[in-house]
User: What shape does this take?
Amino acid sequence: MKKKKSVWPFRPERSIWSRINPRKKGGITGIFRLSRTSKAILAAVILLVGVFSAWLFLPFRPGGIEEANLPTSAFRHTVSVGGEIFIVAIADDTEEATRGLSGHPELHDREGMLFIHDAPDRYAYWMKDMFFPLDMLWINEDFRVVHIDRGIPPESFPALFRPPVPVKYVLEINAGAADENGIKIGDRLEFVAPR
Assistant: This one.
């Protein structure tokens, strides 16, 4: 009787799995007898799994998108830019600034988020996990608008956006709100006292 040929593209007795099969001679220690190519492939697979796992649990994804939604009560501060009033949430610590508006549903008319940094710098912002486009108003330590990025789409991630000069404040508002409200470079940011 003739021995049937295997339909597999490799012979099972020569596969990587036969080398680590504990029932065969050598047992699990057979993995150390793998060829250099097999070890490199195994190391690459382990590395890719590790990188993907780390990406899932990075600090800028605390609890995933579901926890990123801001409560309505967060929008309780009032600011004026160029005489136009906005109700804003304040992001003044690292965790809030990192999360920003990621995962938040679209802002209502005249809502926004104001980022307050400790010192002026050319901070980088991105559109990670965003669901709607934004206008970004870059504001210096003298409370003057020095640059405006208009209509930044969520699809722009992972691109980074930076002002041309150091800023201390960044105001994110709905895309088109800067033009609709006539906000321009040189306009002043003012904090409005609650009534």
Residues 36-56 form the longest helix (21 residues). The first strand starts at residue 77 and ends at 81. Residues 58-73 have pLDDT under 50 and may be disordered.
